[in-house]
Design goal:
The chain is an alpha/beta fold. The chain has a single domain, classed as Hypothetical Protein Ychn, Chain: A (3-Layer(aba) Sandwich). It is built from 5 helices and 5 strands; from the N terminus they run αβαβαβαβαβ. It has a 5-stranded parallel beta sheet, with helices on both faces. The radius of gyration is 19 Å and the shape is globular.
Length: 138
């Protein structure tokens, strides 16, 4: 009888354990800093998340003073950003309003960087969809 109860419990709990292992990890980073140490921290965090969970969805939203990180020839992290974009480890999305305010056009962006109409709205949308939010400051 104990075997049957134990077996029934396992059958009941199995879907719970399986669904716990299939949890989607979705993280959006909010970057507004001009500080290259913040750029390096974001690169490190993205890489650590993807190493821990290769299926995690990661997005970095840039606006304000952070645009140098994704502008060609502006930051020492350009190669690391290009590698992440090439590996499709994360998406980098830049605010069109910030680009206009800083006189940056699409041709100046690192290839693969996406433009969104509004950075804050992009972050709010991701949060509404259940993404974890991290303000990228050190």
């Amino acid at each position: 009888m104990k075997k049957y109860i134990f077996s029934a419990c396992l059958l009941f709990l199995a879907p719970i354990f399986v669904s716990a292992q299939e949890t989607d990890y979705k993280v959006v980073f909010d970057l507004t800093s001009h500080d290259t140490s913040d750029y390096k921290a974001v690169i490190r965090w993205v890489n650590e998340i993807k190493k821990a969970n290769p299926a995690a969805q990661v997005e970095v939203v840039l606006y304000g003073a952070s645009l140098d990180m994704i502008t060609k020839g502006k930051a020492s992290t350009e190669g690391a950003v290009m590698k992440i974009l090439g590996d499709k480890s994360a998406a980098f999305k830049v605010c069109a309003v910030a680009m206009q305010n800083h006189n940056i056009d699409k041709s100046q962006l690192i290839p693969g960087v996406e433009i969104v109409p509004d950075g804050i709205y992009e972050i709010v949308t991701k949060q509404h969809q259940g993404w974890a939010y991290i303000k990228a400051v050190r």
